[in-house]
Specification:
The chain is of the alpha/beta class and about 525 residues long. Helices cover about 50% and strands about 20% of the residues. It has 16 helices and 17 strands. The longest helix has about 55 residues.
């Protein structure tokens, strides 16, 4: 490659020794890789170089007198010709998250801390040099082969997209790291409480009132943990278009009251003044997703309203749609936060100390689910400490249609003998104890083969079958039970960690009557069994 087509690396540092060391680490490598190293001792000097030349990557010192690294990066990226040059910041000091954010906003793609490891430096630089070489090769071909300009431009556009995608990937990686840190925090809190409560219950000398409080904590924190996991999984599913709505006519007022009852187990619901006018309005929606929407909104109101505050719930018919409004007297929403309140991971300044908790995905999930229903959601606040109002608009149902899941069930004479097939020993033991405590005669098996034998011998009325069994999975177990004349009439319930429309379809095709997402909700099971007994 001719000299004028060699990729160039710009090293900017005001300290002579540091500049010599960095350029020295790259010079021999650059010679071997057919590229050039250019040095600058200040931000102004760097700008002069950028005006004259193109660079594959810039290694930029953060702390420089006069024009510092951030200002230099901003000036470089304001100029159209140099706006896409990747910048790696070099610093000897520990950089906090705000400075990192500022750097990435100025177009940085990475940080390196001194002393720099040569191999790491060369590896990071080589990525951008390789991209630059491709660009330079295309440019040379364009000059030599004018008749192929259109094809070469298409290839160059592809490379530019790759550069842009790389830049976006870096930003997404930062968001992922921040989110994982929050996720770890939010998971550790309930897990810590659950572990401590379990220890108290197992302590021989624990007092009865302490054990009772520990049991309540176990229940409350387990529900909290379940909501975190459900919201996390569902947000990913809905944003990737993998959630399929099972719409029916839903009484919105009943859902509001049901959500409040559910929240009472994990939130201090009764510590607030409630003004509820749910009305007898019907919407055309997926009952599970509507409950998820309202639970998140109510949870948000409780979380950010001081004890003793007022939460008002109203709904009204509005041009063929139903409008539900939830107003609180809480801490409100800052004006600059309102436009971003439904973005993923966005939380107010009040939660920077993590006192309020949460992953910052609840409102983002609510917006996605509302829009998936063809509805709309709005947030309003007069400002901080002036409360907030969330309004959702959903399509009105034209008629009350009973849920097909509750109509299309098997009628069985005996439903108290139940078969549980679950390979996880702890889950199997705890679920067995829970079911026995509610009057079931439980047969349990760790594999599909064992379950088939028990089903043939004992003929239980119901089978709870884990899908992810070793060897023979739950789908195959269901198919075999349905093909045997002695067991084909059993009521089969799939237990799985997956709740997408495709997962429901697969369980139904395998012969299951119901699809329950783990963890098993006893209320859901009891409702299904009650339906069996009256069918």
């Amino acid at each position: 490659m001719q000299a004028k087509y060699k990729p160039k690396i710009l090293v900017v540092n005001d300290d002579t020794a540091s500049l010599f060391a960095l350029s020295g680490l790259l010079t021999s490598w650059a010679d071997e890789n057919n590229c050039l190293v250019v040095t600058a001792k200040s931000g102004e000097d760097a700008l002069r170089h950028v005006l004259l030349d193109d660079f594959a990557v810039i290694l930029l010192d953060v702390n420089m007198p006069g024009m510092d690294g951030f200002e230099t990066a901003e000036a470089i990226h304001k100029r159209a010709r140099s706006s896409s040059i990747p910048i790696i910041f070099i610093t000897a000091f520990l950089v906090d998250d705000l400075n990192k954010l500022r750097a990435y906003q100025q177009g940085a793609v990475d940080y390196l801390f001194t002393p720099v490891i040569p191999q790491v430096l060369q590896a990071k630089v080589s990525v951008f040099v390789s991209l630059a070489k491709k660009n330079l090769e295309l440019k040379a071909q364009t000059e030599a082969l004018g008749l192929r300009t259109q094809d070469l431009q298409a290839a160059n556009d592809k490379l530019q997209r790759e550069i842009k995608e790389r830049k976006i990937a870096v930003e997404q990686n930062e968001a992922k790291d921040k989110f994982l840190a929050m996720l770890g925090h939010e998971l550790r809190n309930p897990l810590s409480a659950i572990t401590s409560a379990a220890s108290i219950i197992g302590f021989p000398g624990a007092k009865a009132d302490s054990v009772e409080r520990a049991k309540k904590i176990l229940s409350r924190q387990s529900l909290h943990l379940t909501r975190i996991v459900d919201d996390l999984l569902d947000l990913g599913r809905v944003m990737s278009g993998k959630i399929v709505l099972n719409k029916t006519a839903v009484n919105l007022g009943d859902v509001v009251l049901s959500c409040l009852d559910s929240l009472r187990a994990s939130r201090p619901v009764d510590n607030y003044q409630w003004s509820i006018d749910p009305g007898n309005t019907w919407i055309d929606a997926d009952p599970t997703r509507v409950e998820q929407i309202i639970t998140n909104l109510l949870d948000n109101a409780i979380k950010y309203t001081p004890t003793g505050g007022t939460i008002t719930i109203k709904n009204a018919v509005c041009k063929g749609a139903i409008k539900l409004t939830i107003t609180d007297t809480g801490i409100g929403i800052a004006k600059d936060l309102l436009p971003r309140i439904f973005n993923v991971f966005v939380q107010g300044e009040h939660s920077l100390d993590r006192a309020k908790g949460g992953l910052g995905i609840g409102l983002a999930l609510v917006k996605q689910l509302v829009e998936l229903h063809g509805g709309d959601i709005l947030a309003h606040s007069e400002g901080e400490n002036l409360g907030s109002t969330f309004s959702i608009v959903l399509p009105q149902a034209t008629e009350s249609r009973p849920s097909p899941e509750l109509n299309e069930v098997r009628s069985l004479k005996t439903t108290r003998k139940l078969l549980l097939i679950e390979d996880n020993e702890d889950a199997r033991e705890m679920t067995t104890q829970l079911l026995k405590a509610h009057g079931f005669q439980v047969l349990d098996a760790a594999t599909g083969a064992e379950g088939l034998i028990l089903a043939k011998e004992e003929k239980p009325g119901i089978a709870l079958i884990d899908i992810g069994l070793p060897g023979m999975d739950g789908y195959e177990v269901a198919r075999r039970l349905r093909s045997d004349k002695d067991t084909k009439g059993m009521y089969l319930i799939a237990l799985t960690g997956y709740g997408l429309g495709e997962d429901h379809r697969m369980t139904m095709e395998a012969g299951f009557d119901a699809h329950f997402v783990k963890p098993l909700k006893l209320q859901q099971l009891m409702l299904a069994i009650e339906t069996l007994q009256v069918a």
